[in-house]
Amino acid sequence: MFDGGVTARPFTAPGRPHRIDVLIAGGGLLGGLLLWTLDLHGGPPLLGLPAALTLVALATMSAAELRRRTAPMTALSIALVALALDICSGTLIATVLMFTDLIYAAVLYGSPAAARRIPLSSVLVTVLAAVALTAFRHDPQVVTLSIVIALGTVTPAWTGLIIRNHRDAAQAARLRAEQTALLAEIDRAQAVAGERARMARELHDMVANHLSAIAIHTTAAQTLDDPAATREALGVIRENSVQGLAEMRRLIGLLRAPETPGGTAEPAATPTLDGLDALLAQAGTNGASSGLAFSLDDARPTDGSGSTVATPVELAAYRIVQESLTNALKHAAPGEVRVRITHERGAALTVTVSSPFAERPRPRAPGSGAGLVGMRERVALLGGTFEAGPQTYPAGRFWRVRAVLPAPEEGEPR
User: Fold this and answer.
1) Euclidean distance between the first and final Cα of the chain, in Å?
2) Which of 148, 181, 214 is the last residue of a domain?
């Protein structure tokens, strides 16, 4: 029977005896009946009770066996009454053996409190029985009887406790293994997501600048009816295409493992702040047709007193400047785009990019909207602060991007 694609399981009544419990109860009952038929009793009846009551005790003990797994304490309580009746009416070995099994089951399947108390109680009962027998019967057989009582109570109780402890330890180990596997899968998924985000930032920052310049100059080449201007625009387009292709090849080289065919064992060069002059020169070429000029104010010490920042910080600063220049090419009003870098020993590295701000009906080139998100993520990964938005100055309104990056020196613990 199917319901929504799931196979319906057959109804199982609550507390239904386990198949093994049914076999134990049936085997004990048949064995006891065989012993009764062969008149194999453990002793004479006591208190004048009829020997037939051993069959009642046998049937009661068999019924208790059916509940050994589903209700172990209830089964053990019934078994105590059945055992007392069996001893007083002649004793069948099958009934005694089923009683020992019920002690074992009560420890193994019962509550943790029962698993602690029953083994200790079995030892106490055995000791009291041995003392009582010694007091009332001065007979060497008292030792044998004490051993038999211990075998019927202490042995199954402590066997059940040992097996239960092993079972619980195995279950705990299995749960720990499952938790470890789950945590490993979570770590793997987070690592993959983080790596995907890092690759997306790198790809966006490396290629967006060149593609934006291509889009701007393509538009200019289509709208201007000037062969000289068209040739100049095509030259800029070709230059940005070549540089963008080189950046893509560098990224592919980073992604390829050295062992893979076609991979390179040489580490690709990482952009540094020393390359900002070339970056702004390229931006000036790309933005000349839009009335944009670019200037760099590098306030880092040049007398050797400054420190060299860690590579991840320098790369993040370079990418922030690169993305800010790309956004200026797309959105800034005609004017000067200013880039300022400051850093002193023991202080943070601060990057500030200000571009003329004016409301435009549409950008000069389409964008993905991921630039600010990528810059914010880069700064957050380094534990810095980031802000971007329009600011009003005496000279007019500017769009300002400011990133403050903690800048430990190379080799300094971070």
Assistant:
1) 62
2) 181
Q: Which residues pair with 387 in a beta bridge?
A: 402
CA distance 138 to 362: 112
The parent domain of residue 64 ranges over 13-181
Same domain, 300 and 399: yes
| 21 found inside a domain | yes
Domain count, the chain: 2
Residue 252 falls within a domain, yes or no? Answer: no
**Residue 353 lies inside a defined structural domain of this protein:** yes
Instruction: In whole angstroms, give the CA distance from residue 193 to residue 311.
Output: 22
Written as one letter, the residue type at 118 is: I
pLDDT band of 268, cuts 50, 70, 90: low
Q: Using pLDDT thresholds of 50, 70 and 90, give the confidence band for residue 386.
A: very high
Q: What token pair was written down for 222?
A: 């289509």
Any domain includes 198: no
DSSP-derived letter for residue 290 is G
Residue 225: is its pLDDT beyond 80? no
pLDDT in tens, 370-381: 778 888 888 988
What CATH number did the domain enclosing 380 receive? 3.30.565.10
Which DSSP state fits 303? Answer: S
Which of 181, 210, 245 marks a domain boundary? 181
**Residue 182 structure tokens:** 């789950």
- Could you tell me if residue 390 is left (phi over 0), alpha (psi between -120 and 50 degrees) or otherwise beta? beta
H/E element, 296: strand 292-298
For residues 327 and 355, give the distance between their C-alpha atoms in angstroms, rounded to a whole number: 9
